[in-house]
Design brief:
By secondary structure, the protein is an alpha+beta fold. The chain has 14 helices and 21 strands.
């Protein structure tokens, strides 16, 4: 399996980034819909995106935006409720109408609701078994969620049992991760041929929408599924058109002109401009997201294999200034590598301060020349020189690196900026060929600490792109894996976060807020679930006119 195949979408370089946990509508940030008029059926909404779908098979896609659309087409057994603030997320039944655990806790049995595929064939337990076999046979980025599932057995047409290798808190989350596939369609393609197959031709689904047409690089059209199981909550829209334009400024212009109805991932600078304009046709929404921007240091390449040097880099960067000048306060300085609103987040730690004097001291102690506050050279040796990578097409990241470059120069660090296309950046990072790169995490479901920080998770085995290794942290990760109930996880999670905070394999620049903008036709918009910002798409409706 290649390093790129193992790249988890939590560490992907995203072009379409909007994940919410607070409800938002035109009435203001974080407020639920108060539309006086009743919802109406019909019409086509136009959604703007700078990203195209990379695969129409969830188990081959490496991109978050693709998964947001794919979840509209292939349903899961259950989905997150978005309430994981004080405890792990609870789950809402979808294709499963109920489930129960065995007395010993090592099995979960699901009862499927009566539902059909879009071609009229019933959705059955054998579809669930086939999906599990696919998940464990192809290069799926989230395959780790199935590692502790030892077997999946169809007991009858509507009953399926998941067996586990032990009892642990995330059994239900692991069982329901991933959309259920139609066995009678997908089994026609051998697993070894999945990567090369054109999945846009396989349009049988179970969700509220179906793929009607994909013009790569230009447009995606989804249409209402007439066989959707929940007619009462079925889609109000006839169609969803995704207009793909790799320039967010262009998309914002189309939004103002009325040619685009909804845009997620609005840059903070443009959100600031919209918010300062008099009342107009554009509604602006902000909402909390489990998303970070970070600098990932190559812990296997000197001098960044030294935690003190990595800490010096963090101390030399004025992250508060980045939040104010570039994120326009639609963000908070990062502290720990997990969402701050997540139940497992440690609240005992504080962000490293901006302390260029201490950064200079550390670097001089390590033999590097620095520049003093007066701009004069200090210490012997050579200046530290490095190259910072990021992806093209993301102006905020480009601007961020320019600011970071300026701040590092003040202490005598010579930083160069290089931009690559997203795929090239992922491959170069996976191969360990970098000093530092600017990327982003958007956490989907569980926070994959072992995948991101475990010493055995270096590509191609995982997504520890920075090659961070800590025996003490590995021991805590193993204890975390063995925890039987979620309450036992919290002390271990605190210990893990303290270790990462001290070692600084990543400089967490800031934790983002999501920003969305919509035109006057859009009503009923809700963004409730961290893992799925388009979960409310079927309840969105358009005003006449």
């Amino acid at each position: 399996m290649s390093a790129l195949d193992r790249w988890v979408r939590t560490a992907a370089v995203l072009g379409f980034i909007a994940i919410g946990v607070a409800c938002s509508t035109a009435s203001g940030p974080g407020t639920p819909s108060t539309d006086a008029a009743p919802p109406t059926r019909g019409g086509t909404v136009v959604l703007g995106s700078i990203s195209d779908v990379d695969s129409w098979n969830e188990y081959l896609s490496h991109q978050s935006f693709s998964h947001y659309l794919l979840r509209r087409i292939w349903l899961r057994l259950a989905t997150e409720s978005g309430d994981g603030y004080e405890h792990p997320d609870r789950y809402t039944p979808v294709l499963a109408e109920s489930w129960e655990r065995s007395p010993d806790g090592r099995s979960i049995t699901f009862r499927l609701r009566e539902a059909s595929w879009s071609d009229g064939r019933p959705i059955e337990a054998e579809d669930v078994v086939f999906t599990w076999k696919a998940q464990t046979s192809v290069p799926w980025t989230d395959a780790a969620s199935k590692e502790r599932i030892s077997n999946v057995v169809a007991l009858d047409a509507r009953t399926v049992r998941f067996d586990f290798d032990g009892v642990y808190p995330y059994q239900l989350a692991d069982a329901v991760e991933g959309g259920i596939l139609p066995r009678h369609v997908y089994s026609r393609v051998p697993f070894e041929q999945w990567v090369s197959h054109d999945w846009s031709t396989e349009t049988v689904g179970s969700g509220p929408f179906l793929l009607e047409r994909h013009d790569p690089g230009h447009e995606i059209v989804l249409r209402r599924n007439p066989h959707y199981y929940d007619d009462a909550r079925g889609p109000l829209l006839d169609r969803v058109v995704v207009r793909i334009v790799p320039d967010v400024v262009n998309l914002l212009g189309q939004l103002k002109a009325g040619d685009v109805d909804l845009l997620l991932g609005v840059p903070p600078r443009d959100a600031q401009r919209f918010s300062s304009e008099p009342e107009g046709p554009i509604g602006l929404l902000t909402y909390a997201t489990p998303s970070f921007e970070y600098l990932g240091w190559n812990c296997a390449r000197p001098p960044f294999d030294d935690a003190e040097v990595r800490r010096a880099m963090t101390l030399a960067i004025d992250r508060r200034a980045l939040v104010e000048d570039l994120a326009y306060d639609y963000a908070e300085v990062g502290v720990v590598p997990v969402p701050s609103r997540w139940w497992g987040a440690s609240h005992e730690l504080e962000a490293w301060p901006y302390d260029p004097a201490e950064a200079r001291r550390i670097l001089r102690e390590r033999g590097f020349a620095t520049l003093g506050a007066d701009g004069k050279p200090e210490g012997g040796g050579s200046a530290l020189e490095l190259t910072m990578l990021t992806n093209v097409g993301n102006q905020l990241r480009q601007d961020t690196l320019v600011k970071v470059q300026e701040q590092l120069a003040r202490i005598g660090v010579r930083a160069h900026v290089r931009s690559l296309d997203g795929r090239a950046l992922r491959e170069q990072a996976a191969q360990g060929d970098f000093d530092v790169y600017l990327g982003g995490w958007t956490f989907v479901g569980k926070v994959p600490l072992e995948t991101l920080f475990g010493s055995r998770a270096v590509p191609p085995e995982g997504s520890n792109m920075v090659r961070y290794a800590s025996p003490a942290l590995d021991r805590d990760l193993e204890r975390l894996r063995q925890a039987g109930v979620w309450q036992d996880m919290k002390p271990l999670l605190d210990s893990i976060q303290r270790r990462i905070h001290e070692d600084q394999p990543y400089t967490l620049l800031y934790e983002r807020e999501g920003i969305a903008a919509h035109g006057p036709r859009v009503h009923g918009l809700r963004i409730d679930v961290p893992a799925d910002p388009l979960a409310g798409l079927e309840q969105l409706w358009l005003a006449a006119g």
